[in-house]
Design goal:
The N and C termini lie far apart (33 Å). A 7-stranded mixed sheet has the order 5-4-3-6-7-8-9. A two-stranded antiparallel ribbon has the order 1-2. The protein is of the alpha/beta class. The chain has one domain: Vaccinia Virus protein VP39 (Rossmann fold). Helix 2 packs across helix 4. It is globular. The structure holds S-adenosylmethionine. The site of S-adenosylmethionine has 26 residues, from strand 2, helix 4 and strand 4.
Length: 227
């Protein structure tokens, strides 16, 4: 694929994401423009890197579509220096977008249950120099990550049957959590905000379809087709 082809595809995608309202701010536009998605997709899909669709990354998992990545990133209202907990590293693409926005002053802790995906994600992040403010952990993210709490933002990129309990405890006052909540078949993107006094507000947004969060506070492996 020539550089010119990538450039044209990327420009077309970004214009679409802006026109359709998935990208709303300069911060998110810059991140989507500068983090090369083709690094994170398997080589056989390289020509589809800048199409707005999810792609399989092995082990029954997916890299999410650029529109949903942009939309969730906007909902997090990120700032430079934020400390973020992400559950479901997958390819590392969303992690890279978060790392790009919070910069060196910030920190992204991302948990993935499949070791091989976490290892590939780290290599991908290194290629773009976006690994320095990122800590990748292999484990069950459905219980969060107690050790580094509290977090300014929490992003869960796998579907959960209910808001996992750790979110209430590990999110800072004034923080925002975004996650798909519902059944294995379909979910609502859910935004939980904790105000400065710790009061919780929950809003259910657009319908989405994510792979399941598998673990103690997610779906049980026996309920899914995935291994
Ligand atoms: N954001 C990722 C990207 O940009 O490539 C896509 C994430 S993919 C839709 C969801 C990921 O969540 C999968 O890689 C899956 O293995 C992972 N996952 C599922 N249950 C998990 C759990 N309990 N803890 C950590 N990761 C989990």
């Amino acid at each position: 694929m020539s550089d010119n082809y990538i450039y044209q595809q990327k420009n077309r995608l970004i214009n679409y994401l802006k026109d359709a309202g998935f990208i709303k701010t300069k911060i998110v536009e810059e991140a989507i423009s500068n983090v090369d998605r083709s690094i994170f997709v398997p080589p056989k899909y390289i020509n589809e890197s800048y199409e707005d669709k999810p792609l399989t990354i092995g082990y029954g998992q997916t890299i999410s579509a650029p529109s949903i990545v942009a939309y969730m990133t906007e909902l997090l209202e990120l700032k430079e220096g934020d400390k973020i907990l992400e559950i479901g590293t997958g390819s590392g693409y969303q992690t890279a977008i978060l790392s790009y926005i919070v910069k060196e002053k910030g920190l992204v802790i991302s948990i993935e249950r499949i070791k091989e995906l976490s290892e590939t994600a780290y290599k991908n992040l290194e290629k773009l120099g976006l690994h320095k403010n990122v800590k990748l952990i292999v484990g069950d993210g459905s219980i969060g990550y107690e050790k580094e709490k509290p977090y300014d933002k929490i992003l869960i990129t796998a579907a959960s049957p209910k808001i996992p309990n750790f979110v209430y405890d590990q999110l800072k006052n004034g923080g925002i959590a975004v996650m798909p909540i519902g059944s294995i078949e379909e979910q609502k993107l859910t935004i939980l905000k904790k105000d400065d006094l710790g009061q919780i507000n929950i809003r259910y947004d657009i319908g989405v379809i994510f792979v399941p969060l598998i673990g103690q506070n997610g779906f049980k492996l026996s309920n899914t087709q995935i291994n």
